[in-house]
Amino acid sequence: QVQPVESGGALVQAGNSLRLSCVVSGRTFDFYAIGWSRHAPGKEREFVANIRWDSGSTMYVASVKGRFTISRDYAKNTVYLQMNRLKPEDTAVYYCAAGTLYYSGTYTVPNNYNYWGQGTQVTVSS
Predict the structure, then answer these.
(1) Distance between CA atoms of 55 and 58, rounded to whole angstroms?
(2) Cα→Cα distances 33→7, 13, 75, Å
(3) How confident is the model at residue 44 (pLDDT cuts 50, 70, 90)?
(4) How confident is the model over 28-41, as pLDDT tens digits?
(5) Do 126 and 14 form a contact (C-beta atoms < 8 A)?
(6) How far apart are CA 71 and CA 87, in angstroms?
């Protein structure tokens, strides 16, 4: 059974940094991509970043490019989201998800992921 578990969310001031972690249990050779999405009150769930498990290639939503970095540690089955220069608009519940179904696209849509964690709250104060 594939199960992502997130951690690292917190309340921080704008301009500061946070690192989120996602430990994914299960058969890693089943993963095509691991992604982070976020859900802010009153908004739809939004793709943030992903990393292809085999190649390590990454993709980001435009609003976080240059500020967020996604990375993976094979040995620990863990994916990290380093978030720098945080802004109040980054406030949301952040979800880690694993995609184990093949898609010909880039896994930049939340619906591309079929296993989701419970989420971790990130609050950025101004």
Answers:
(1) 9
(2) 19, 31, 16
(3) very high
(4) 777 899 999 999 99
(5) yes
(6) 21
